[in-house]
Amino acid sequence: MAIKHLFAPCTLIVLLTGCASDYYQTQYPAPVYGGQPGITPLPPQPPKPVVPDSSSSVVTKPLKEFKPDPVPVEITPEPVIQEPKIVVPEEKVEEIPPLPEEAPTPAPETPAQPESEAAAPFTPLESNAHLSAPVSALVSAAKQDTESGNLEAAGAAIERAIRIEPRNATLFYKLAVVRLNQSQPRLAEDLAKKSALLASNDTQLKKHSWLLIAKARELLSNPEGAKAAKKKADSFN
User: Fold this and answer.
1) Where are the domains of the chain?
2) Distance between CA atoms of residues 54 and 45, nearest Å
3) Are 188 and 180 in contact (CB under 8 A)?
């Protein structure tokens, strides 16, 4: 009985060992990744060749070269249509007869002015009354500059004298004469009016101041004003 119990396990062990040996002989070991030694992976098996089916194969043949026969085509040129030239008739220009020459119109005669209205030459008043020594020296220098033709220097000298004596009527009159010689009639008229205003009791200076105003107005093409200034000058006789 003890032998039976001992024989049964031994038989089972032998069977299991045989089965295991058959299994390892027929099966390849599974690949193990991780680089463990002693285990080699199975080599890849080549793919099976595919045999083409003769029934579904397509046979290609080269095409025959196509050479069409050239057909000549005749091209007829289109006729050129020439446009007719348009001739414009020349217009005849009528000659215009020359105009008759007109007789020159005689210039209107200018009536002679009476002697009383004729422009009299202006002669300035030469007076150095009521002048101090420095002012008299400046007036003498201005006279020399005027005679030499240097009117700018003459005017500057009299202006310096006016700054010394700003209410001297004679100085304003002399400066008015210089401005009149410089072709500044409007400024000369204003200076002469101031001279006539400052010369309260000097009737001679007032008369010449208004005569200078009349001359300036003549240069300004103001005959009526010049006539009125002369009338004012005659009132101081």
Assistant:
1) 133-234
2) 27
3) yes
168, 198 Cβ separation under 8 angstroms: yes
Tokens representing 152 are: 């700018």
Q: Compute CA distances 114 → 119, 120, 195, 216, 226, whole Å.
A: 10, 12, 30, 20, 15
Helices 223-234 + 203-219 axis angle, to 10: 170
* Tokens describing residue 228: 């009125």
Show the tokens assigned to 187.
């400024």
Q: Which fold has domain 133-234?
A: 1.25.40
Residue pair 211/227 in contact (Cβ under 8 Å)? The answer is no
Residue (of 164, 176, 172, 159) closest to 133 by Cα position:
164
For 123-163, how does the pLDDT look when each residue is reduced to its tens digit (9 = 90+)? Answer: 888 877 678 889 999 999 999 999 999 999 999 999 999 99
* Between residues 166 and 43, the one the model is more confident about: 166
Query: Quick check: pTM over 0.85?
Result: no
